[in-house]
Every structure is written in structure tokens, then in C-alpha cells.
Design brief:
heterodimer; A: 271 residues; alpha/beta; 9-stranded mixed β-sheet; two-stranded parallel ribbon; 6 helices; 13 strands; 24% strand; B: 209 residues; alpha+beta; 7-stranded antiparallel β-sheet; 7 helices; 7 strands
Chain lengths: 271, 209
């Protein structure tokens, strides 16, 4: 559904500003060094050869006795499903020297999973992550407000949130907020680059169909989903921030717009 | 799964409520529509720690209905936890847990397509296809998403759903979700629209029986 606008026969050519922004300027030679990236997911397997060392992380679980009803345990943890490892490896593949932090919010049971998700995102923002990959979402209106508040906070402090769109065009948070970068899988065989969709809320499309991804027990599988497209965009942003630290979220969007495959410079600032 | 077993089997698998019958017909329809080897629907238990397969068609169907899996493992667990769909092409290279499940049903697939069943509030379960016909542009994921909406409506309109004793099953769907479903129909290709309308007609006819 959200991938539809990115189909080659539907994706329009978009005219951009005539700015001196090129892929080479934006992320050329950048390895993402010095950039902190949080993967809010099922955990990350640091032993997977495609992931490499993890700089830190926390596991969050529902606990009515804990502050905010969520227990936060710092330190190493497993990946329960394999998906967080997949996202981390995709980011590492683009930005080999970035610092990856695992924020495990998908746990043993689903009780209060929205609350755990909110607190995991809060941890990433409080700990000054530069980029946060969110390949998960919630439909629950109970968390619309808390997630929106956090997304705005992240936006203002310079933490870039990258969220996978849900499969169906129904409300799903936080991927529909303008303060995050919403991503869908782009049809076609291009494994590199990304496209811009001029019809939001899903603004960017990247490889996410039949892509090779890291999985559990050191394996690699071929998988499909918007959740694999989001870390591609997160990886590009990490490289951009490695070369141009302290850019704001709207500057990042401008750079991604200017460097998207289907955008060509056209409009000059003087006209 | 503790102890290394793939899953537990519930003793009370004889549920033949209209909702389950409808989900059963949905799996048969999906199997035919996607030319898949099998299709199953698993719903979240009341304690939110397990998924129970309540309906299935095709290979291994007789073995998988009634199977309970922990939500903290496997492809189905991730889909229901994250609310995100996923397609995997080479299941045999996936974690051993998936194979444990597959072996217990007597059928080991090559590919799996799994989409969350999203209720008005949050995820209710997961619908899975085993070995669907190839779909290079993955339109099958979008179409299965439409069927999952159908499954969600079925679950939420049923007071018989055993996994929702809290009364959530009696809660009417949010009108905005109904509007969203209609909007989705309008965005489909004509052949997809016809299939979706046939599905809706089947659902209405069934519930009026």
C-alpha cells in the first residue's frame, strides 16, 4: 500500500531546488564515525559478523513496580527475533564506523507494549542519540499523544527519527508524524539509493523487497518489508551526520530530497 | 520455547464458532487466491504471552490448529509484536525455531508471508501464507493486508472469540477504520477491487446465516 507511490510507473519526477547538494557532498567518504544510532527493536546480536561491536544498549520490560511501569536494564542482551539484528546490519553496511545502541522494547510478552515502546524511544532521546531507527509502530490511540510529544522533542533537539510505515494506510504511529522520516519499501531491483514521494505521509522509499538481511544465529535471510527500508534511510542519514554533524531534522530532509533518485534540480532561488 | 519444544497444543481445539468458521473460510480463500501451500490465522491469547492458531487450510493444517506459540519467538511473534508485515524467502536458513514449528506440522515451507491482524486498538494476531506464488513487486503483501483487515473485522465483531474474554470483541470498530478500509478499496486495481468486494459479500452472507 504505502509502497505503491514508489512503483516505477507511478513515481513522478520531482523538481528540486538548485542547491549545491550532491550525494558526494552529502555523504561521500563518510563512514558514520562519531554518530550514535539507536535501533529500537527486538535487540541486536553483536556477535553477528554483519553487525560488529555494539556501543551500548538497554532492554525494557513492563514492570508495574518500576518508574513509569517500565524496567530499564542496561547492558548486553539477546535479539529475541532476529529483526533488530537485521536493522543494525543494514545500518552498519552503509555506515561501518557508526556507534550502534540496541534499545530492546519487544520482549517476552505484549502487555503494555505501547508503554514499553514509548519509554524505549524516550531513552534514545534522553541519551542524545543522533539517529533512531523505528521499524515498529502502534495503532493504539493511547500512545498517539506521548509518541507525538517525544517525536517533537527529538525533532527540536536534533535526534532524527526514522520510522517504517505500516503496510496499510490506516493510522499508525509514529510513522505518520511530520516530525519523523517515514519510509516504505521501494519496488524494483535498486538496492542502492532512495526515492522521494511528493505525496506524504510516507516521504521516502528505499530497498526493502527481497533484500539479504542478517538474522539470528549468524544467518542471512532474504526478506521483504518496510521495516527493512527504514534502516537504509537511517544509514544514509548516519553517513550525512558523520560528514556534517549537528544538522537539524529539516536540513536532513532537504538533503535527502535533493539527493533522491527521482529529484532533479530545477527551480532556482532567484525565480 | 522453554524446553526446546516448538509449541503447545490446547486441549480445547474444537471451537467451531461462526467467527472461527469464517476465519477458516478466509484461510481457504487466501490459499486459493495466492496459490499458496497453506494459510493460517493465529490470534493473541488473553494473557498476551502466546499466539494460538485458530484456523488453517492446506499443508499441515490439521496439525497446526490449536498450536500455541510464545509471542517472543519466531516470525509470527515478531509480526504481532511490531505490527509490521514481513516476507521471508528462504525459511530453511532462518532460525531453527521456525523449522521446529514447521516440522511439527509435517510441512517445511520455503517462503512465508506474514501480516499482522490489526484491530481498532492494536494487533490481534497474524495471518500467514506458506509458499505463496511468486510476486516480484510484492503486491501480495498489500493484498494479504486487505485480507487481514477482513480477519480483524471478523474477530472484533465476534462475541465468541475465546481469546478476547475482556470484552474487547464486543467493541464496535472505529468508524475511521471503516472509512480507511473503503478508501483502500478505491485505491486498488479493478481486479483487486472485484476480489475485495467478493470477500466482503462472502463475509456479509456468512454473518447473516
Amino acid at each position: 500500500m504505502w509502497s505503491e507511490p514508489f512503483r516505477p510507473d507511478r513515481l513522478p519526477a520531482v523538481q528540486g531546488l538548485s542547491l549545491p547538494i550532491t550525494p558526494e557532498w552529502a555523504w561521500g567518504n563518510s563512514t558514520g564515525r562519531g554518530v550514535k544510532v539507536a535501533v529500537v527493536d527486538s535487540g541486536v546480536d553483536a556477535a553477528h559478523p554483519l553487525v560488529g561491536p555494539i556501543s551500548g544498549g538497554v532492554a525494557l520490560e513492563y514492570d508495574p513496580e518500576a518508574p513509569n511501569a517500565v524496567r530499564v536494564t542496561e547492558g548486553p542482551h539477546d535479539d529475541l527475533f532476529g529483526h533488530g539484528t537485521a536493522c543494525a546490519a543494514l545500518i552498519r553496511g552503509l555506515a561501518p564506523d557508526c556507534e550502534i545502541y540496541s534499545v530492546r522494547v519487544l520482549g517476552e510478552r505484549l502487555t503494555a507494549k505501547g508503554l514499553v515502546f514509548v519509554e524505549g524511544l524516550r531513552w534514545a532521546i534522553d541519551n542524545q542519540m543522533d539517529v533512531v531507527n523505528l521499524s515498529l509502530s502502534t495503532k493504539s490511540m493511547d500512545y498517539f499523544g506521548p509518541l507525538h510529544e517525544l517525536a517533537d522533542r527529538a525533532n527540536f533537539q536534533g535526534t532524527i527519527l526514522v520510522a517504517a510505515a505500516n503496510n496499510l494506510p490506516s493510522a499508525s504511529y509514529p510513522s505518520l508524524y511530520s516530525s519523523v522520516l517515514s519510509v516504505a519499501a521501494r519496488p524494483g531491483s535498486d538496492s542502492q539509493g532512495f526515492a522521494y514521494n511528493p505525496e506524504p505521509p510516507v516521504e521516502f522509499g528505499a530497498a526493502g523487497i527481497d533484500v539479504d538481511v542478517a538474522w539470528m544465529n549468524g544467518s542471512i535471510i532474504k526478506a521483504t518489508g518496510n521495516s527493512f527500508a527504514a534502516p537504509i534511510i537511517a544509514g544514509y542519514i548516519t553517513r550525512i551526520l558523520g560528514k556534517h554533524p549537528r544538522l537539524t531534522a529539516f536540513q536532513i530532509k532537504t538533503i535527502l530530497h535533493a539527493t533522491a533518485d527521482n529529484v532533479t534540480p530545477g527551480t532556482t532561488l532567484s525565480t | 520455547m522453554p524446553g526446546g519444544t516448538a509449541g503447545d497444543r490446547r486441549a480445547d481445539t474444537g471451537d467451531s464458532s461462526p467467527a472461527v468458521e469464517l476465519l477458516q473460510s478466509l484461510t481457504a480463500l487466501a490459499m486459493a487466491l495466492f496459490d499458496a501451500a497453506a494459510c493460517s490465522v493465529a490470534l493473541l491469547d488473553a494473557d498476551e504471552s502466546h499466539l494460538t492458531f485458530v484456523a488453517a487450510s492446506g499443508a499441515g493444517a490439521g496439525q497446526i490448529v490449536g498450536l500455541r506459540l510464545p509471542v517472543n519467538r519466531g516470525i509470527a511473534g515478531w509480526v504481532v509484536s511490531s505490527g509490521q508485515p514481513i516476507g521471508i524467502e528462504d525459511v530453511r536458513s532462518d532460525a531453527r525455531f521456525e523449522l521446529d514449528v514447521a516440522m511439527s506440522t509435517g510441512y517445511v515451507p520455503t517462503s512465508i508471508l506474514a501480516v499482522p491482524i490489526e484491530g481498532a486498538g492494536d494487533t490481534l494476531g497474524v495471518i500467514q501464507l506458506l509458499d505463496p506464488a511468486p510476486s516480484p513487486d510484492r503486491q501480495d503483501m498489500a493484498l494479504l493486508g486487505l485480507l487481514s483487515t477482513h480477519a480483524a473485522l471478523c474477530v472484533e465483531t465476534s462475541a465468541d472469540h475465546a481469546a478476547q474474554p475482556s470484552g474487547a470483541a464486543l467493541t464496535p470498530p472505529d468508524p475511521r477504520d471503516i472509512d480507511a478500509a473503503v478508501s483502500q478499496l478505491k485505491g486498488l486495481r479493478p481486479d483487486e477491487q472485484r476480489t475485495a468486494i467478493e470477500l466482503l459479500s462472502t463475509f456479509v452472507a456468512h454473518t447473516r446465516r
